[in-house]
Design brief:
Helices cover 48% and strands 0% of the residues. The chain contains three helices and no strands. It has a domain of 43 residues. The two termini are 25 Å apart. Helix 2 packs across helix 3. With 77 residues, it is mainly alpha-helical.
């Protein structure tokens, strides 16, 4: 599965505090050569949350578990 053929855009209304939290997390995780954005943090949070809900619902874990962090840039800003 490649990102270009498996992505869909969505629009969500979220509390402003979530955006502030995502910005703080992105800043805390950013390193030279490893840029994180608010969107990166929210995508990772959704992936982790969906996996937790799958387990809670008694469903098998997905084969496409969220990727482990790497030292490569996630976003180029």
């Amino acid at each position: 599965m490649t990102p270009s053929d498996s992505r869909a855009n969505i629009a969500l209304d979220v509390p402003a505090e979530w955006l502030a939290d995502a910005d703080a997390i992105a800043a805390a995780l950013a390193r030279p050569g490893f840029t994180m954005t608010r969107s990166d943090v929210l995508r990772a949070s959704i992936a982790k949350g969906l996996e937790a809900f799958r387990v809670e619902a008694g469903l098998a874990p997905t084969s496409a578990a969220p990727p482990a962090p790497t030292n490569r840039p996630l976003s180029r800003k």
